[in-house]
Design brief:
By secondary structure, the chain is an alpha/beta fold. The chain is 29% helix and 26% strand. The two termini are 30 Å apart. The structure holds iron/sulfur cluster and magnesium ion (MG). Iron/sulfur cluster binds next to loops. Keywords: ATP-binding, Nucleotide-binding, Transport.
């Protein structure tokens, strides 16, 4: 099959440190997470802040090391790979961040910022070849080369995200991990950046892991959506199933705050009670039971397991469906 990335049983626990010493307690940031992404598709990871979605992105990218589980990229298990092997995947796997300003060096001209990864990974290129590549990628991303002698602060937020995308693309990656790439932007600019990402995906067969707290942002870019809560995926399904027929009460709650253009259609409105619990001491059984409007007595005792529900490759971990 054409799976580009497959993650299985991935775990990352962070010890809780209390100033001087670390206790024996852990934040289970990512707890037995499994999914796969096909080449050329987009999987969105959605959940509230603290659900582990950014940690998951950083594990896959190798910025942090997993405690257990497999990260199979193009057939190689990176979780068991050497430093050298990881380094060889620096090129085909790139990241885009929420705040391009923070990730762009303020003292470098943007043409230097974009040329830098090429200098590292393609040192045999001549100066002219490098400049030609930088020019072409900037223009593909909607920045006129005329502006390439400027510094990041001279650009707007949306333009800076275009520069961040150009820098990620210059090495012709296959997988892009985009962590909240439009959350810092105005809604009208968000749409422009999402359209650019979609066009780039089509033109270059890119695969996206798209991390967001906002289901309305991922609605038009996703092929599949995984909903995370306190370190677990609670529902994973094709986009249409998530938006038209969500199963997990948490997915339904996230969706009920997404506006629908057609006022005749109505989504079940679910208001969540309370805050997301402390990840160091999550509720027993279903971690969502303290906020779930449909919780039953079994929910605080037994952990629901992932099950396929219906005929749309929809998987959900909830006692309502077992
Ligand atoms: Fe709600 Fe129970 Fe389902 Fe958890 S398992 S989401 S508490 S109904
Ligand atoms: Mg985050």
């Amino acid at each position: 099959d054409n799976e580009l990335l497959k993650v299985k049983g991935l775990k990352k626990y962070f010890p809780i440190s209390n100033g001087w010493f670390s206790s024996k307690e852990y934040v289970k940031a990512v707890d037995e997470v499994s999914f796969s992404v096909k080449k050329g598709e987009t999987l969105s990871l959605v959940g509230e802040s603290g659900c582990g979605k950014s940690t998951l992105g950083r594990l896959i990218n190798g910025l942090i090391k997993a405690d257990a589980g497999d990260i199979v990229f193009k057939g190689d298990n990176l979780a068991e790979a050497s430093e050298t092997k990881w380094r060889s995947y620096r090129k085909p796997m790139q990241m885009i961040f929420q705040d391009p300003y923070a990730s762009l060096s303020p003292r470098m001209k943007i043409k230097e910022i974009i040329a830098e990864p090429l200098k590292i990974h393609d040192p045999s290129l001549s100066r002219e070849e490098r400049e030609a590549k930088v020019k072409s990628i900037l223009e593909i991303c909607g920045i006129d080369y005329y502006h390439s002698d400027k510094y990041p602060h001279e650009f707007s937020g949306g333009q800076r995200q275009r520069i961040g995308i150009a820098r990620a693309l210059i090495l012709q990656p296959e997988l892009i991990i985009a962590d909240e790439p439009v959350s810092a932007l105005d809604v009208s600019i968000q749409a422009q950046i999402l359209n650019l990402l979609k066009k780039l995906q089509k033109d270059y067969q890119l695969t996206y892991l798209f991390i967001s707290h906002d289901l309305s942002v991922v609605e038009h870019i996703s092929d599949h959506v995984a909903v995370m809560y306190l370190g677990n995926i609670v529902e994973i399904a094709p986009r249409e199933a998530i938006f038209e027929d969500p199963k997990h009460p948490y997915t339904k709650a996230l969706l009920s705050s997404v506006p629908i253009p057609d006022p005749k259609l109505k989504r079940e409105s679910i208001i969540l009670k309370g805050e997301i619990p402390n990840a160091a001491n999550p509720p027993k059984g279903c971690k969502f039971h303290t906020r779930c409007p449909l919780a039953m007595s079994i929910c605080s005792k037994e952990i629901p397991i992932m099950k396929t529900v219906g005929d749309k490759q929809q998987m959900v971990a909830c006692h309502l469906y077992q």
